[in-house]
Amino acid sequence: MPSGRYRIFISSVQKELAAERRAAKDFITRDPLLSRFVSDVFLFEDIPASGRKPDDIYLGEVEKSDLYIAILGNTYGWRNAQGKSPTELEFEHATQTRRERLVFVKGNDDSAREPEMARLIGRAGREVTRRRFSDIPGLIREVYASLVECLERRGDLRATPFDGSICDGANIKDIDGSAIRMFVETAEAAGRLKLKGSRTPKAVLQNFNLLRDGRPTNAAMLLFGKDPHRFFNNAQVHCFHFHGTKKRKPIASQQPYEGRLLEVIDQAVEFVLGKIDRRVGTRAASTQAPVAFEIPRSVIAEAIVNAVAHRNYRNNGFVQVIVFADRLEVWNPGELPPGLTPELLREPHGPIPRNPLIAEPLFRVKYVEKAGTGTTDMIADCRKAGLPEPDFEQRGPHFVVTIWRDWLTDAVISDLGLNERQMKAVAYIKAHAQLSNKDYRDLTGTIIRTASRDLEELVAKGVLRKIGATGRSVHYVLAGKQDLKKTNRT
Fold this sequence. Notes:
- The protein folds into 4 domains: 6-153, 3-Layer(aba) Sandwich (Rossmann fold), CATH 3.40.50; 172-230, no CATH class; 236-404, Heat Shock Protein 90 (2-Layer Sandwich), CATH 3.30.565.60; 410-483, Winged helix-like DNA-binding domain superfamily/Winged helix DNA-binding domain (Arc Repressor Mutant, subunit A).
- Helices cover 35% and strands 17% of the residues.
- The protein has 16 helices and 17 strands.
- The strands form 5 sheets. The chain has a 6-stranded mixed sheet with strand order 9-8-12-13-15-14, with helices on one face. A 5-stranded parallel sheet has the order 2-1-3-4-5, sandwiched between helices. It has a two-stranded antiparallel sheet with strand order 6-7.
- Residues 486-490 have low confidence and may be disordered.
């Protein structure tokens, strides 16, 4: 194996975390395994004081590096004329230049951090997995584990990927032959499979590289096993439905789905479709009336398929599909591949499957595409349906896709300049579909005059639509996006 391939840049507030920075560098350069793959670890303080340059010059050092490590604590550090610290500038440059980023956060008490540092940590957590540590030995453990994972992903350490590893305890008798026959028929009907030769389960598995030494791989068992749950406790999709906009009991409905991946995907998609609104059209074009869901089925399916196909199966967590009153969230245990960020998902990009042996059969039955167009197709389909674009973000160890059911997203509401009472009303009406003047007064504790003024202002801004003219029948519902008024906001 080549020696000294990678250069690492370590970033942190210098005064607060000087000991941690030094300990991390010393460990990496002296460890018998890591030192075989790392040529240099850059620390600002290693350069003689007389030779130090302005802080922004060190962005070039970030660009010269292959890996970027951030060690974040409580203090934000010196700020430039734009109010940004060198640490944040270096993080931004590592993001822009697509360096692989590893972030380590000292301590669990986020309330003790300076606001700018807390904000930077929150931002980092939406993009990459943050690992926490309490002391230098803890930091070293986390750095070592992260770098080993990195070397495995890059192919420098030859560890067999999860999907290609032999399923421990399984043999060919644990494969469901009928599931393979159905797969072949579906793939051929989709025009993505022309199978020649034997169609026995063993031959089909061999054709897709799903056997090793005659035994089923993990991918084979997840896709075609008689009882995948017997071998994988975490290969489930947990679906939840909440009437409101937050995770609060009582849970309206919940259902864990387990079994073969194709079946689990279909069950999770149907769960969501059963909880959202749908509109039935006319039979003008065909004998069957068309059904249009408020979120296109293609968008729901893409989010769930991506979570199941690209998740980290070595993580004990579950895929979660959560239907709220205003949105759908799909939580995937894992993170984006190195070099790919949530922002880049909004642009054309090549496919980088975490589990290629799982992704290939899914492609053959048209559950996924190989062109890397899944997320851009989701964005286009949401726009066509009059919905906001989906949100893509890293939340700790989970990658989360949020698909909005209506145009009144948190960002839009924040921009409208609503008072606290009006924001409560919007949340209430999302959960209960409509709201009366009395409901508003009960909710906010205001008098009738104030309630009427607040509600009329919401109508004037295009947030609500008034139903009825006078009397007790008058109530309010959410307006459409086209009704939003271009008002001056403070």
